[in-house]
Amino acid sequence: MRGLTISAHGGTEQIEFRTDLAEPPLRRESDVRIRMRAAALNHLDLFLLKGLPGVTITAPWILGADGTGVVESVGSSVSNVKAGDMVVINPGLSDRTCEYCLAGEQPLCPRYGILGEHHPGTMAELVVVPAVNVLKIPTDSDVAESAAFTLATLTAYRMLVTRAQVRAGERVLIWGIGGGVAIACLQIAKMLGAHVTVTSGSDDKLARAIALGADDTINHTTVDVGREIRARTGKKGVHVVVDSVGEATWSQSLGALGRAGRIVTCGGTSGPMLTTDVRKLFWNQWSILGSTMGNDAEFAAIVALFSEGRLRLPVDRVYPLEQGRTAFERLETGGQFGKIVVAI
Q: How far apart are CA 186 and CA 289, in angstroms?
């Protein structure tokens, strides 16, 4: 079986295209085996490549969290999909038995794990996952868009709809437009009726964000974003800030946040340690919200929006699986707008 793997942590030089991988069998009666057609890259893949605290890989480790393909076979108890169905994969796996899973909050499961990080990933010809982690999509769906869709959109949906509860007419600030989660946040915020300001260090990316529906833009290399937002809003600030950059932007995010505002994050690409003046936190009655992936109901909601053609992520470039290392090198530069996909 062909696949994209690593055998040790490090840089992109560790990425290896292989043709001798063992094909995964159906392990349980609730599993499905998918012949993959494409997979997409996420910043999570770069973090895994470099090494994550508490995460251990077994060589050869298959990369990738996102993907789409055609169901090849199913276990005896599977009824939601059948052989021949085109599906997308929810990369988050949980034990389905803990109190959080039983309450419908799978991402809070103590045994929660993500494909490509805690479990072998999607960048291979065949993938086996529980049937609850796949949903059918129209057979004529664009393969690259399908592969690029799930992780970023699921993350964005939970952040804005479930955690921050964005409402029509609210002002939303999104840092770092260009990556999948930020673009999905822009699209979902506009779908909810919000006024959206996005930031980037690239004027080209800001122009492309306007074309996707952004109301306002800020080049964050030239101004203090917090001060700029307050100037543009008559010192009121925004209702919601989406900040997954972390250390480099946190103080500016709080500077942009209005009274009773909410700041929501799913990561910290510039560093994990944040400093917050607790006096401003309680005086302004801010809410700081963490968010990871999404539950079954949120997965079903975004796949329905995808299938209806209402929510799609732009695809930056598509590479053949054999050129997977080149795809990772592009992601590492940060020059992409939208998702990078490998065709399998």
A: 18
d(C-alpha 137, C-alpha 85), whole Å: 8
- The CA distance from 323 to 313, in Å, is 22
The pTM is what? Answer: 0.96
- Does residue 325 share a domain with residue 186? no
Domain with 217 in it: 155-290
Tally of domains in the chain: 2
Separation of alpha carbons 2 and 143, rounded Å: 19
What contacts 218, CB < 8 A, 6 or more positions away?
197, 198, 199, 206, 225, 228, 229
184 & 271 share domain: yes
Is residue 250 within 8 A of residue 222, CB to CB? The reply is no
Q: Is 178 left (phi over 0), alpha (psi -120 to 50) or beta?
A: left
Residues 253 and 229 sit within 8 Å (Cβ to Cβ): no
- Cα separation of 142 and 124, whole Å? 19
CATH number at residue 13: 3.90.180.10
137 with 8, same domain: the answer is: yes
Q: Are residues 223 and 162 in the same domain?
A: yes
Which of 114, 120, 10, 13 has the alpha carbon at shortest distance from 60?
Answer: 120
Q: 159 and 271 share a domain?
A: yes
Is residue 72 packed enough to be buried (19+ CB in 10 Å), middle (13-18) or exposed (0-12)? middle
Q: What is the pLDDT along the chain (344 residues), one digit of tens a residue?
A: 999 999 999 999 999 999 999 999 999 999 999 999 999 999 999 999 999 888 889 999 999 999 999 999 999 999 999 999 999 999 999 999 999 999 999 999 999 999 999 999 999 999 999 999 999 999 999 999 999 999 999 999 999 999 999 999 999 999 999 999 999 999 999 999 999 999 999 999 999 999 999 999 999 999 999 999 999 999 999 999 999 999 999 999 999 999 999 999 999 888 889 999 999 999 999 999 999 999 999 999 999 999 999 999 999 999 999 999 999 999 999 999 999 999 99
